[in-house]
Structures are given as structure tokens and as C-alpha cells.
Amino acid sequence: MGRSTFYLHLLSSILIFTLLLNAVHASKKCYIVYLGAHSHGPIPSSSDIETATRSHYDLLGSVLGSYEKANEAIIYSYNKHINGFAAALEEEEAADIAKNPNVVSVFLSKEHKLHTTRSWEFLGLQRNGVNSAWQKGRFGENTIIANIDTGVWPESMSFTDKGIGLVPTKWRGGNVCQINRLRGSKKVPCNRKLIGARFFNKAYEAFNGKLPSSQQTARDFVGHGTHTLSTAGGNFVLGVSVFGNGNGTAKGGSPRARVAAYKACWSLTDAASCFGADVLAAIDQAISDGVDVISVSVGGRSSLSAEELFTDEVSIGAFHALSKNILVVASAGNDGPTPGTVINVAPWLFTIAASTLDRDFSSTLTFGNNQQITGASLFVNTPPNRSFSLILSTDAKLPTATNRDAQLCKAGTLDPRKVNGKIVSCIRDGKIKSVSEGQEALSAGAMGMILGNQEQNGNTLLAEPHPDVTAPGVNILAAYSLFASASNLPSDTRRGFPFNVLQGTSMSCPHVAGIAGLLKTLHPDWSPAAIKSAIMTTASTRDNTNRPIRDAFDKKLANPFAYGSGHVRPNSAIDPGLIYDLSIVDYLNFLCASGYDQQLISALNFNRTFTCSGSHRITDLNYPSITLPNLGSNAITVTRTVTNVGPPSTYFAKAKLPGYSISVVPNSLSFTKIGEKKAFKVTVQATSVTKRGNYNFGELLWTNGKHIVRSPITVRRK
Fold it and tell me: Where is the Subtilisin-like protease fibronectin type-III domain (predicted)?
């Protein structure tokens, strides 16, 4: 009864919220004014924060004409580690502020999209193993993983604190837990596992109206945030299934990690509901709270040039996080397989694509001629041992529906008189949730639905409830919100599921965040770049049958544009042998090479001083991969430096790049101690057989007989 009352209360609040959506600013928009780094230290005092806030109001007031007008306009003051503010401004006002020499960039706050278990065994991790990354990384013990998403359902078994010790002293978030208790519950939502929860909605509310009091909480009403957070750092939970599928143990990549939820995504029906200004505020708070890893399964534009790195909220937040030794893991987006659709591509971000597992939630359909077809399904509600007529959706369409819309089973296209009691056959449309086709079939009276792939969907099988590296992102079973419907469709009344199966790079991103947590526990002093390098250089380009990874969409062999360095292998990443390390100075030099203004680059450094010295090239950024997109007739030489993180040994180089001449000097590197660094050069030159305009793919391997340190090479002859 209590739960039903809670749902009714929330549903009425949703109605009120919908009525408020028209309360928007007529001509003003949310702009972010980015000022670089603060001059105060890494742990600012309350006085430092107050001074920073006042400076933001003074700056805006000088343009708007008064402190009072600035007070009305400012939505957020980023006053901890990121220096800037978000404000409701006219276009002309934003242009005036951009003229100030102390301003790095002024840009419109974007709406970021959410990128919507057997996976850990698939990656080689065993709870009772001896030498897996789980044991070596102590299950991520005391590493703090932050998740910026739709919040958390704190009552989930994935977040109980049974057997977990005191909160680590490095946590600076205090006892802040902005989650309402369930009606009748005496349980405190946060604990020694879920050590913090905050929400950020000022930008969303500024342009969509005030949210009802019942939604002023970090509680997850959608399920996405609970799913991603439990995938990264959830406990071991026995006996988990969805609709009777996937019975087993659910767990996160770092099951002994501490987790914190930062809610910055708000719509209950729209994936594009994460306002950039809210996301940036969440990242700033997570840095201040002292987290080790930030997982962000959201993103904005795919076309982000080097000149636009500081007009993107996730890119800006990640830059300031790495300066505090915090790794930010972000999803690559779900807009593929078209080239150029990867998002979150700043070099200081760890960008993750999605791959499949060796586990399907399958159902078998038997036709009258005994032909059988196996597909993926979570929910089978047809009576056993009964036959049903099959009808094509185009044969069952209403007179007012087009053939194309009916083929895709779009809402309002099927005639109930033709569909009732039958199985209807539809085609999957990548632009809408495939569960919506099932909902249309159900509402028309169908007993079931067959959903076929189009050519661009390839042979992907998604079980649904009707590119630095790649990680599992299809058919991922993890914790869920009890309030959310199984499919997140407004018309879906099925609720109360403690676990659910989702897919997308949103699901692969927390897998890598969980792996990063293991590495951070074992190597607490490693930089974000070191952790990223360890995961990238040990990734595999072969699947679990030892065959080359295939592209599920194009039905051909995949390449680095699809999987980056390859599929993550945590058991190898925990002991990589060599790493390619980077510091904040290296990234500032990268910006020098990218043509950024000297004054702007200085503003990014906390003491606001930095000088671009010597000659720097983008290709010499000490990244664990090599990309040369505009190779001419002359040879190009790039420099890399590796750091030994294993025992004394000698590594030998092996490089291959079809259609090109490639050499490595020196071709052997000897190390006598941990932390020792050695530089080498790679020279690439086109040959007479090299075709212009095409990308070729190769690799560089450093091996000492035990470790294989692999870097992908991508070259295009202009």
C-alpha cells in the first residue's frame, strides 16, 4: 500500500511538472562563461569560494550594469575547481562578455543525451579466482567512483554496506545525501557504500520550469543512473534475474568501491535531458568531494575540433579533474556506425564504445513448417504450446498509415481488427526505441511481436523488455529503479523491477570505470593517463574465440575506428608492463601545438602562468596510439616515451603498417627499475603502392616475453 501511494504521489507530480514546461525564458538562453582555473589551491577554503563567487558576479555585473542584474541572471557559480559561471543571457550580452581578456570561452549550454551479469566473467574476472584483476585490485576497495547520471535508487541491494568499513578519510563530501526516504521507511538512504548523493537542476529548471518538491532529490526515477552506478561499483548480489532471464550474481567492476551519485539528468521521458551547465556543476562538486574516478554516460556533439575543446562541458570538467589526478570515463555515444559520430573525444577523456557478450537472452520461434528462428527477448508472456497466426505489419495497417510507418510499427499505425490475437512482424527502426514497436503491437491486441533488423542494424540482437577502447554494452543486467517502467515508455505500466537489462555505450562506460577503480586501488599514485594507458595497451583486437573482432553492423572485420585500441582485458591491464604517461604540462603543450592563444593556455593553469616553449606537435602527444591523418610524400617521425611499471627487463619492438614503410628507433629498450622512462621514435613513410585518401591500420608492439604493450596505428595518405 505504501509503495502504491508513493507512485501515485509521484505520478501526480509528473503531471504538474508537465504543465510547467511552458515556463521558459522568451529570448534568453543559458550560456557558460568559462574562465579557466582558479588561483586558489587544490582544497579551497570557504573564503576562497566566496571570493571566486563574488568575482563572477562582479564580472557579469560590469556587463549587465549592476550586481543585482547579475544576481538575477547567474544560474551557477563554478567556484571550487572549475572557474566560471552559467547565466541566462541575451546573445548580445554573451558576446560582450566574450570580449573580456580574462574569459577563455563563452558558449551555449548544450543538452547532453544519456547513452542508453555475465559481462565480468566474460572479461575474465572470477570472484573466487587467485590472480584475476579482482584479487590483485582488492575488488576496488576504498576507491571512490562518482556517477553523473539520473541519480540512484539507494535501497537496491547493490548499494548495501554490509561488511564494509568506515568511509575513507579522503572523502570530502561529508554526510550530504539529497535523497528523500521512501514513505514509511526508517532507512537512511546513504551509508558506508553509497557515501553521497547530490542533485543539480538549476539550469534545467531555469528553462523548463520549477520541478515539484517530490522530484527535488537525487533519487532515480528512470533507472539509467542506478544501472550505470551498480555496473561500475555495485556489490555482489546473488539470484538476480529479469522476467526469469539471466539468473546469477550481479556485481560491479569494483564491487568493494565506495560510490557517489550526482544527478544531472531530469526528464522522465526524454534522453536529451542533461543540461550541460548542470553536468559541469556536478563534475566540479565531484572533484571537490575527493572522488577517484568519474563515470559520465552522457555526451553532446560529435563534431568537436581541437579549437572547440573548451566549449564542451564534459571536456572542460574532465580537464580540471585530471589536474586533480581524477580519471573521467565517458561514453562514445550510440549514433554509429556512421564514421565521425563518436563523441567525448578530448584527449584527457577516456572514451568507451560498446561491444557484445557471449550471452544472449534468447527465445525460439517455430513456424508451421517447423522452421525455427532464434532471437533475443526478455519478456515472453504467450501461453505455452499454442499456435498463433502471423501477420506482416504492412498488411495490418490502418488506412491512414503509410507503409513505411506501419513497417516500423509506429504509434497509431496498426488496425486492432487485423492484429488482435496474432503475432505481428515489424522492422526495427534505429531512431526510436524498439520497445515502442512492441508497445504499439500490444495496444492493438497482438499476442506477440517479431522485430526484424534493417541492413544498418546488422546482426545485433538486443534483449529488450516488450573510441578509445570498447567494453561490454549489450544486454547488461544491473540494478534498476523500482519506480521506473521496464522500458521507460510513458505507456508502460510494468514497474517494481530491482534489476533490468539495458544496452548502449552508457553500459560500457561504467564497465571501464569499474576496471579503473581496480587499478586505482592497486596503484593509488598512478595518473589518469597511466590508468588509461594500462587499459588501452593491453586491450585485445580478438574476441573470446580468438578470432578478429567483427563489426556487428557492417558484418565485416572491425577496425580501430570501431573499437579503438580493442576490447578491454582487466587481468592484463592490472599489470601492463609499460605505460605512456601524461601530466597537465603535456596537455598544455598539446594546446600550444593546437594553436591556442598563450594567454588562454595560461588561464587553464591554477597559478595562471604557462609559457609555450620550444616546438610542439600534436602528433607528439604521449598518447598510447599513433594517428597520422594527413601524411604527405615525406616521412613523418613521432616521439613517444614509456615508463616501466614492472620488474627489470628488456622490451623489443615490432611494428607493421600495410602499404607503408615503418621503423622504430631504438628497437629495444632495457629497464632496470620501476619508474624508469625511455624515449623512442617511430618513422612512417608512404610507398609507391600507398593509395591516397584511404585509412590504413597497423600496430606497434613492445614485448618482453611476458607483457605485450600494443598501440594501434592509423594513417591516411592525403
Answer: 620-715
Place of cell 555496473: 231
Q: Which of 202-211, 274-283, 553-562 shows the lowest per-residue confidence on average (mean pLDDT)?
A: 553-562
Largest CA distance in the chain: 80
* Distance, CA of 266 to CA of 215 (rounded, Å): 9
Rg (CA), the chain: 26
Q: What is the mean pLDDT of residues 694-703?
A: 92
Q: Is 33 left (phi over 0), alpha (psi -120 to 50) or beta?
A: beta
Range with lowest mean pLDDT among 164-173, 516-525, 548-557? 548-557
Contact assessment for residue 236 and residue 162, using Cβ atoms and an 8 Å cutoff: no
Give the number of residues written for the chain: 718
> Which pLDDT band, with edges at 50, 70 and 90, does 62 fall under?
very high
Query: Is the whole-model pTM more than 0.85?
Result: no
The residues, any chain, with a CB within 8 Å of residue 538's CB and separated by 6 or more, are 569, 572, 573, 576, 708, 709, 710
Query: Would you say 249 and 238 are in contact if contact means Cβ atoms under 8 Å apart?
Result: yes
594 classed as catalytic? no
506 is catalytic: yes
Structural element, H or E, at residue 154: none
Among the options 81, 105, 149, 625, which is catalytic?
149
Please give the share of the chain, as a percent, with pLDDT higher than 70. 74
Residue 157, number of CB atoms within 10 A of its CB = 18
Measured CA to CA, the distance from residue 183 to residue 3 in angstroms comes to 8
CA distances from 344 to 317, 328, 353 (A): 11, 10, 11
How many angstroms from the chain centroid is the CA of residue 304?
A: 16
Q: Residue 363 — φ and ψ, nearest 5°?
A: -135, 150
Q: How far apart are CA 47 and CA 50, in angstroms?
A: 5
CA distances from 251 to 176, 529, 615 (A): 25, 26, 48
Q: How many CA atoms lie within 13 A of 404 on its CB side?
A: 1
pLDDT tens-digit map of 119-166: 445 455 666 666 788 899 899 999 999 999 999 999 999 999 999 999
HSE-up (13 A, CA, CB side) for residue 664:
21
Q: Has residue 450 got a pLDDT over 80?
A: no
Task: Give me the pLDDT at residue 155, please.
Answer: 93
Q: Is 149 a catalytic residue?
A: yes
Residue labelled with grid coordinates 542533485: 199
472-485: average pLDDT: 65
Strands 293-296 and 327-331: parallel
**Cα dihedral 564/568/573/574 (nearest 10):** 150
| Nearest of 88, 116, 12 to residue 480 by alpha carbon | 116
Grid coordinates belonging to 253: 567492476
Query: What's the pLDDT score for residue 332?
Result: 57
Laid out side by side, the sheet with 578-579 consists of 578-579, 636-644, 677-686, 660-665
The per-residue pLDDT for 464 is 35
CA nearest to 462, candidates 427, 501, 499: 501
Residues 409, 262: Cα–Cα separation, whole Å? 37
Active-site residue identified among 506, 533, 565, 625 = 506
Cα torsion through 94, 99, 103, 105, rounded to 10: 60
The residue type found at 590 is F
First to last CA, the chain: 68
Question: Model confidence at 562, in pLDDT bands (50, 70, 90)?
Answer: low
Comparing C-alpha atoms, which of 611, 624, 33, 605 is closest to residue 320?
605
